[in-house]
Amino acid sequence: MVSFAATEEQEMIVDSVRDFAREQLRNVMREADDSGDIPADIIETGWGLGIVPALIPEQYGGFAGEYSAVTGALVGEELAYGDLAGAVYLLSPLSVAIPILLGGTEEQKHEYLPRFAADTFVPATAALIEPRITYDPMDMYTTAVKDGDVYLLNGAKAYVPLAASAGMMLVWAKEGDTTQGFLVDLGAAGITIGEREKNMGIKGLPTYKVRFQDVHVSPKCKLGGEAGVDFETMLDHSRVAMSALAVGVGKAALEYAMTYAKEREAFGAPIATRQAIAFMLAEMQTDLDGGRLLVWEAAWRLDQGLEATREARLAKTFMDDTALMCGDRSVQILGGHGYIRDHPVELWLRNARAFGVLDGLAMV
Fold first, then answer.
1. Phi-psi region for residue 105, left (φ > 0), alpha (ψ -120 to 50) or beta?
2. Is the pLDDT of residue 1 over 60?
3. Is residue 96 within 8 Å of residue 362, measured between CB atoms?
4. What domains appear along the chain, each with residue ranges and CATH number?
5. I need a labelling partner for 358 at 20 to 30 A (CA). Which of 8, 42, 140, 235 fits?
6. Residue 94 and residue 55 in contact, taking contact as beta carbons nearer than 8 Å
7. Which residue intervals of the chain are DSSP H helices?
8. Any alpha helices (H) in 223-308, and if so which ranges?
9. Comparing C-alpha atoms, which of 148, 140, 162 is closest to residue 212?
10. Please, are residues 1 and 172 in contact by the beta-carbon 8 Å criterion?
11. Dihedral (CA of 239, 132, 130, 353) sign
């Protein structure tokens, strides 16, 4: 039976993240979108909440009793409600830490995970998406081929967050017939980081194309050692994370549009009383609530060690559409005001478009 009662620990971290997201992250959302940079003090404040250590068990340097995807989903929703770019920025280290926690060898866990309990932000990132129209995470063009006592990594990735500043990257590549992860030092020879990408949304998050040409990777840096990892499970965790972020963006758009509709009057009455507007708001709320339940169910199944691929895919597919719908409807409800930058709904619409085209930017 799925329980919807949050633990005391979950309530504490979600409350602190909610306050940070609404009072600080939201306040720099427009500035970050215009300048392309999130203020460093905001990142350090967010890091100081202990979001990453809160998901890492004590034995590996964190302060979680045990890892919980549900906790991660709750945190992701609140962060994205504040700002999606800031949320992905702060969660980027988890795209490395969580795969190590879930699939790394004991040696890898003890070597790498304590690094994420540092007092200052740890720039780390993962590279999944490839700049190809035929991109398929289960059949990568980026390859890792064993050559003597090293792996040779070749290929290209796109939409890699923080690549220019990160010290460590988890690169997903094809080894034989499976997709496996490789921990790479970004100072290694053969890695070329391209210019920062110019994206439609999440403009406060720096993303890059990265090329790999005969990059030497030690076998001890293959995630999970010789046995490797179950990549589908890793994708499930990423789908849950991205779905939770989509709930946060959709909720932000809905609440703003609802407040506007209650305050904006036309022909002597709030436009929220007009049937067309009321129906749009009702559909947004209904789909968001349903999507949130899909996310929670998938996360709960992951925590229970149950098969969750179907549930994670359903949550991701549904929330990709729902976040975009909420962004679009919020612009419609504001009418001409929705298309100008005096209101944030156009920003949320641009950000929501990312969910249907980007994969693997976050993990919980």
1. beta
2. no
3. no
4. 8-117 (1.10.540.10), 124-227 (2.40.110.10), 231-356 (1.20.140.10)
5. 42
6. yes
7. 8-20, 29-35, 40-48, 69-82, 84-91, 94-103, 106-112, 231-263, 275-303, 309-334, 345-352
8. 231-263, 275-303
9. 140
10. no
11. negative
Q: Are 175 and 193 in contact (CB under 8 A)?
A: no
Distance CA 207, CA 354 (A): 13
Q: Model-level pTM greater than 0.85?
A: yes
Residue spans of alpha helices (H) in 83-180: 84-91, 94-103, 106-112
Cβ–Cβ under 8 Å, residues 113 and 56: yes
Which residue is listed with tokens 């559409």? Answer: 321
CA distance 73 to 183: 25
Count other C-beta atoms under 10 Å from residue 16's C-beta: 17
Tell me whether strands 124-127 and 168-175 are parallel, antiparallel or unpaired: parallel
Please enumerate in sequence order all residues whose Cβ is within 8 A of that of 110, keeping only pairs 6 or more positions apart, or say none.
60
- The answer to whether 262 touches 238, Cβ cutoff 8 Å, is no
Average pLDDT in the 158-170 region? 96
pLDDT tens figures, 92-119: 999 999 999 999 999 999 999 999 989 9
Based on C-alpha coordinates, what's the Rg of the chain? 20
Tokens of 198: 């110019």
318 and 289 Cβ atoms separated by less than 8 Å: no
Q: 149 φ, ψ to 5°?
A: -100, 20
pLDDT of residue 349: 98
Cross-strand bridge partners of residue 191 = 212
Strand partners, 160: 208
Contact yes or no for 353/322 (Cβ under 8 A): no
Q: How many CA atoms lie within 13 A of 216 on its CB side?
A: 6
